[in-house]
Each structure stands twice: as C-alpha cells, then as structure tokens.
Specification:
single chain; mainly alpha
C-alpha cells in the first residue's frame, strides 16, 4: 500500500506541479537526480561492479555510461544558446477571398470577351445586310426616277415662264 501511495503522489506532482516549471529548471533538476541516482547506484552495487568480469577496471563502465549521458545532456543544454534549427518561411497561401475574386475576374473577362465577339459578329452581319439593302434601294430608286423623269424637250409646260 505505501508504494501505491507513493506512485499516486508522484503522478499528482507530475501532472500538476512539473508542467509549471521552465524547461531549463526541469533540465537542471533531471541532471541533479541523474547524478544522485548514479552515485547511489554505484554505492549500492559496488561489490557487483568490483567482481564483474566484463570490465577491466571497476570504474570504467559506469564512467563511460555517465560520460555518454552527460554528453547528450550538455548537447541538449547548449542547443538553447545556439542559433537553433533553421525554420523555413511558409509560402504565401492565398485566402478564400483572393481565390473568389480571381475566379470572378476571370469569369467577368471571359463574359466580356464573348459579348464583344458576339457584338462584332452581329455588327458585321448587320453592316453587310445594310449595304446590300441600301444597294438594292438605290437601284430601285434610280430606276423609278429614270422612268418618271419628264422630257425637257417635248412638254409645253416646261417651256412656259
């Protein structure tokens, strides 16, 4: 039961107190706890380290593990003081309003182009029809005037003052 109580207390600390700490504070606390844990572990298992067969000396293996761990921890700490990882800038993403206005402008220009082409075609056909009609009208008028003209030589009414 006491170990369950310790686990619950540790969980409460982890979820309520630790998130309020700064990252540098958490790093220093973790470094201190790591040093304490390694020294306590070494004191507790000193005889096992001394009698182990895979080491040539009693202090090389733990020192090697501690050295590699400290190397990574110091690398992490020094990353706060460097220029950091370069982050590329995001491309300009058009907004919905820009896209809508672009589509509206494109549709408007297409509509204008179609209207202008239709007007030009209608004007061309109308001009051709007007020229043809005007030519026929002139021909008819000329032929009617020619037939209705009075002779200037034979009429008595034309000779009177």
């Amino acid at each position: 039961m006491p170990s369950l109580l310790i686990i619950l207390l540790a969980g409460a600390v982890v979820f309520t107190v630790i998130p309020k700490f700064a990252p540098m504070t958490l790093t220093l606390i973790a470094l201190g706890l790591l040093i304490f844990g390694v020294s306590h572990h070494y004191k507790l298992f000193y005889d096992e380290y001394r009698l182990s067969t895979w080491q040539t000396s009693s202090f090389i293996a733990p020192a090697l593990v501690i050295g590699v761990a400290l190397f990574f921890i110091l690398g992490y700490l020094l990353s706060y003081f460097g220029s950091g990882v370069p982050v590329p800038t995001l491309a300009n993403v058009p907004s919905v309003g820009d896209i809508t206005s672009g589509i509206t402008n494109a549709a408007s220009s297409v509509t204008t182009a179609v209207t202008n082409a239709a007007n030009k075609a209608v004007n061309t056909v109308t001009n051709v029809a007007n020229r043809g009609t005007s030519g026929i009208t002139n021909t008819i008028n000329n032929s009617l005037r020619f037939n209705n003209k009075r002779s200037t030589f034979g009429s008595l009414a034309n000779r009177l003052p």
